[in-house]
């Protein structure tokens, strides 16, 4: 008769299932070599008596060891340790040995002026909870859903975009996905952009630009002037696709006037080129009406309109959308089975209910009032106490503005401010080939700060600039 081994002692801890602790203990003794291959483990009854735990607990622990192949059961004989090369496990740390969860690093940042941050206090938590509760109550929302997005939300977006941005579409043309970069990835495949040069605003939004480069898409930087992307520079290159932010150019804030818009559309028509119109913060214009979309002027199906709920609600929602021209929609529909819906159906349904019940318009009116106050407060704060030759660059829209400080180095300002708990951002990152970028301009977003913190952060920045100037 084979001798049954005695297991090394185990001390059970509170807060974790006993069977899980027992399984982990035996597994680690096996992988460390303390229990040799071929050893017979104690019977379930004997071990439960020895450890003063239930037989069910031992059965669960043994069952997990059997399922993972650490042990083998021999009929009418018992449970034995499988033959495993234990040298393989040296240096491996199991997830339950890894200690406490990773905590976010303490950066010491008290005032973060990032352009994409929103103020948590502005989020309509109770209303969105009601919308989520409704979404969870509907059985059909627990399925995969439409490849192109939740149909009621697409119908609602079609009407909303027509009324607010002049976008001409039917619901089928609207494709929903988890972020603008995902939608751009669909367009890369749809238009086979790895073989075509994409014209890109320079400076411009680095997130989409870096994704395109990562996807193997050749980038052609197109200079930006006070009216947006330069047509003169664009016609020298004549790419098959151009990415632009006409309603509020990022990061300069330039608004493309109607003359430039018409010229851009004429160029696209003549070249059979496509325009990616990224309307990333179109709801937030603080004087006058929102600027109509470029797509609203398009009669030749050359514009692909992109939008998102990241600024108006939260980037954590991960719901963006694009409006495809009909002929491109047909091309995408032929490949529908290759496309998975990346945005949660339940969250799309919750957003639909949130809009349908009137919560969206109430929220939008409220946050516009909040952001316009912060916009003008930041503008006022930047007008006083900084060097006389400094220049505030802003256009009554969006969530950021630029501060140009001639004769100063933006990296130096950023570093010194960070040491004082204030995080501001250099603009060189938004330039392709940033050796040509100006080095004296910082970007300040205001969406994630309340008015008190905004003023406090700028007061510290003001001191930093004075110290560096001295």
From TrEMBL:
Gene3D superfamilies named among the record's database cross-references: Type I PLP-dependent aspartate aminotransferase-like (Major domain), Winged helix-like DNA-binding domain superfamily/Winged helix DNA-binding domain
Limits of the HTH gntR-type domain: 16-84
Cofactor(s) this protein requires: pyridoxal 5'-phosphate
Parts forming coiled coils: none
InterPro entries on file: Aminotransferase_I/II_large, HTH_trans_reg/aminotransferase, PyrdxlP-dep_Trfase, PyrdxlP-dep_Trfase_major, Tscrpt_reg_HTH_GntR, WH-like_DNA-bd_sf, WH_DNA-bd_sf
UniProt entry tagged with the keyword Secreted: no
Gene Ontology MF annotations: DNA binding; DNA-binding transcription factor activity; pyridoxal phosphate binding; transaminase activity
Keywords: Aminotransferase, DNA-binding, Pyridoxal phosphate, Transcription, Transcription regulation, Transferase
Family of this protein: In the C-terminal section; belongs to the class-I pyridoxal-phosphate-dependent aminotransferase family.
Protein name (Swiss-Prot/TrEMBL): PLP-dependent aminotransferase family protein
Organism this protein belongs to: Falsibacillus albus
């Amino acid at each position: 008769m084979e001798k049954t081994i005695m297991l090394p002692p185990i001390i059970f801890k509170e807060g974790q299932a006993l069977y899980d602790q027992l399984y982990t203990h035996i597994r680690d003794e096996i992988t460390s070599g303390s229990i040799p291959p071929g050893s017979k483990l104690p019977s379930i009854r004997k071990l439960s008596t020895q450890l003063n735990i239930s037989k069910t607990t031992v059965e669960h622990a043994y069952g997990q060891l059997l399922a993972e192949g650490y042990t083998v059961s021999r009929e009418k004989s018992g449970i034995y340790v499988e033959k495993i090369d234990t040298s393989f496990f040296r240096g491996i740390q199991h997830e339950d040995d890894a200690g406490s969860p990773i905590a976010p690093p303490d950066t010491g940042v008290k005032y973060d002026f990032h352009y994409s941050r929103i103020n948590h206090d502005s989020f309509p938590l109770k209303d969105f909870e009601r919308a989520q509760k409704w979404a969870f109550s509907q059985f059909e929302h627990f399925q995969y859903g439409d490849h192109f997005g939740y149909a009621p939300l697409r119908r609602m977006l079609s009407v909303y975009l027509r009324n607010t941005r002049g976008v001409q579409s039917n619901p089928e043309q609207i494709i929903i996905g988890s972020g603008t970069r995902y939608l751009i990835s669909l367009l890369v495949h749809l238009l086979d952009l790895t073989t075509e040069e994409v014209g890109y605003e320079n400076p411009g939004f680095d997130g989409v630009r870096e994704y395109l480069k990562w996807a193997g898409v050749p980038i052609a930087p197109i200079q930006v002037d006070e009216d947006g992307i330069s047509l003169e520079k664009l016609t020298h290159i004549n790419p098959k696709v151009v990415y632009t932010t006409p309603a509020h150019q990022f990061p300069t804030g330039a608004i493309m006037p109607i003359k430039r818009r018409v010229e851009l559309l004429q160029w696209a028509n003549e070249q059979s080129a496509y325009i990616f119109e990224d309307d990333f913060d179109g709801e937030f214009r603080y004087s006058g009406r929102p600027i109509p979309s470029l797509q609203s002027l398009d009669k030749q199906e050359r514009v692909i309109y992109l939008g998102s709920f990241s600024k108006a609600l939260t980037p954590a929602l991960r719901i963006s959308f694009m409006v495809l021209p009909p002929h491109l929609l047909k091309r995408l529909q032929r490949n529908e089975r290759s496309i998975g819906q990346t945005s949660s159906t339940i969250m799309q349904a919750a957003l639909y209910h949130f809009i349908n019940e009137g919560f969206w318009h109430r929220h939008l009116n409220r946050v516009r009032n909040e952001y316009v106050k912060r916009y003008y407060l930041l503008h006022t704060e930047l007008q006083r106490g900084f060097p006389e030759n400094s220049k505030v660059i802003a256009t009554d829209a969006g969530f950021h503005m630029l501060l140009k400080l001639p004769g100063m180095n933006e990296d130096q300002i950023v570093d010194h401010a960070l040491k004082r708990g204030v995080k501001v951002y250099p603009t060189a990152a938004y330039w392709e080939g940033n050796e040509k970028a100006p080095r004296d301009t910082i970007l300040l977003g205001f969406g994630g700060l309340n008015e008190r913190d905004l003023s406090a952060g700028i007061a510290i920045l003001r001191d930093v600039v004075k110290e560096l100037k001295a």
